[in-house]
């Protein structure tokens, strides 16, 4: 324990230094494929080594192969934050090593999850009686949503296998995890309909209605629609109230994928982004995307836990207990349950509702300011409405010029932005989600963009 204590203190100091002066690191790792593999021995050590020795190699070999997600100038994909209270909570969770698959094996693991997820429902203005559980990713959560949707229309599936006439709907901007979920569950890609979107990349409900009608006429069974609140490319928000109307009328399960944008609902004036979601059957959002909680932590809510349970519950003799505690293993695929609720609870308490709202509110404000500045500059074009913390833009000119611009930004080592295709056009994305990103950071980005575009003209 002496070594643990000594290095424990040193590593906490290392982490504090890391968070305090990230500018020491290039945001994007510059290693080449296989550098790390070639830099490490082919065989594991016969004899154990000291932490000191291992840590040296962590700094020398591993760290250069890290792209610094927790860096304020990481603005790619959906930037996120591993906040200090969450880092401490993770340390405690690993020390306890509790595996909460059933209530009995660590009541606090289950009950803290229930409490933290209820707090979030309250802050989001969602129905307080929804069932919730934490999963690893939104992809897994969406798969659970689709499985529940199927259990609702075809409860016999768990015994005799899947019917092949069920049809799922999503927009053409939906995340690939929706289709992947359908593939994994044996729904099949041919039974997934990609519904067209409007000029702001939101699902068109009238096209949804048409598609459902066409499928019914063909003798198929529409069963589920997935709406997206905050699409991955442009952070667009599907018209959930209209989609919920259709789902209700047609008897479809409504799953909402709010992986990124859901967190914004902690800000009272942004609660509207979840309008209509109170009518959903299931919903996912990722605190590990925009709520200062490190990966992984994805929150899955379900209005009809009985259906979810029907899809997944299977209790072997070894796990039978006589208490009345909630056994989360009955509601999904995984048996093992990491104590993820601890880091979420630490974050919710440490910042509080107002603290979290203020962080997100300011991030949105600085995003809009940068967007407005770019919109006024004739050299740039804003390609999607930036209502939250993502800007989709292009330098006016060819796709190739924009590719070169992105390479130059990322090649500088100072920022990391990503790209996407929207309406067949190549666009760049600035995603703000790290709590250490400031207006000064964006000022620097603007200077870099300005200088790069000037040299390219
Ligand atoms: C990021 C994202 C996902 C996938 O999230 P994971 O947790 O990595 O599975 C799904 N849907 C949307 C809209 C996303 O933005």
Helix-strand layout with pairing:
Layout: H1 2-20, H2 35-39, H3 51-62, H4 84-96, H5 107-124, E1 131-135, H6 138-153, H7 157-160, E2 166-171, H8 176-184, E3 192-195, H9 205-217, E4 221-228, H10 240-250, E5 253-257, E6 282-285, H11 287-290, E7 298-302, H12 305-312, H13 341-376, E8 380-382, E9 390-395, H14 399-411, E10 418-422, E11 425-431, H15 439-456
Parallel strand pairs: 2-3, 2-4, 4-5, 5-6
Antiparallel strand pairs: 1-7, 6-7, 8-9, 9-11, 10-11
Bound molecules: pyridoxal-5'-phosphate (PLP).
Residues 78, 137-139, 175, 177, 228, 230-232, 257, 259-260, 286, 298 line the site of pyridoxal-5'-phosphate.
- Named at the architecture level, the CATH assignment of the largest domain is 3-Layer(aba) Sandwich
- What ligand species are in this complex? pyridoxal-5'-phosphate
Name the strands of the widest sheet in spatial order. Answer: 1-7-6-5-4-2-3
Beta-strand segment tally: 11
Q: What's the end-to-end separation, in Å?
A: 61 Å
Offer a concise description of the structure.
The chain is of the alpha/beta class and 457 residues long.
Could you characterize the architecture of this molecule?
44% of the residues lie in helices and 13% in strands. It is globular and about 60 Å long. It starts with a helix and ends with a helix. It binds pyridoxal-5'-phosphate. The site of pyridoxal-5'-phosphate has 15 residues, from helix 6. Pyridoxal-5'-phosphate binds next to helix 6.
Q: Tags for this entry?
A:
single chain, 457 residues, Aspartate Aminotransferase, domain 2, 2 domains, 4-stranded antiparallel β-sheet, 15 helices, 11 strands, binds pyridoxal-5'-phosphate
